[in-house]
């Protein structure tokens, strides 16, 4: 996953920030994976206990055969992620 991420280059990146009304990192990871319909890589679907932040790495193929990579950085913020 990491090598593919470096290959695509900054011109193919899109970055945004969201607040999700999800109470835990574990639930957030599961919901993002289900919503995106993509495969987690580098064991990023597993969150070590006690972590307050996490990075989820996903890859998949979308309509038209386009390869897509996702890096979702998340952090607990009170009762939301």
At the first level of CATH, what is the class?
A: Alpha Beta
| Span between termini | 24 Å
Residues in helices, as a percent range: 10-25%
Structural class per helix/strand content? alpha+beta
Number of helices: 2
Q: What quaternary form is this?
A: single chain
CATH architecture: 2-Layer Sandwich
- Arithmetic mean pLDDT: 93
Shape: globular
Total tally of structural domains: 1
As laid out across the biggest beta sheet, the strand order is: 1-2-3
Q: Topology as H/E string?
A: HHEEE
Q: How much is the radius of gyration in Å? A: 13 Å
For the record, what is the CATH homologous superfamily label?
TATA-Binding Protein
Describe the protein's topology:
Elements: H1 2-8, H2 25-36, E1 39-40, E2 53-62, E3 66-75
Antiparallel strand pairs: 1-2, 2-3
Summary?
By secondary structure, the chain is α+β, with helices and mostly antiparallel strands. The chain has helices spanning 2-8, 25-36, and strands at 39-40, 53-62, 66-75. The protein has one domain: TATA-Binding Protein, CATH 3.30.310.
Please tell me about this protein's structure.
It is a single chain. With 81 residues, the protein is of the alpha+beta class. It has a single domain, classed as TATA-Binding Protein (2-Layer Sandwich), CATH 3.30.310. The protein is 23% helix and 27% strand. It contains two helices and three strands, in the order ααβββ. It has a three-stranded antiparallel β-sheet, with helices on one face. A hairpin with a 3-residue loop joins strand 2 and strand 3. The longest helix is centred in the middle third of the chain and has 12 residues. The two termini are 24 Å apart.
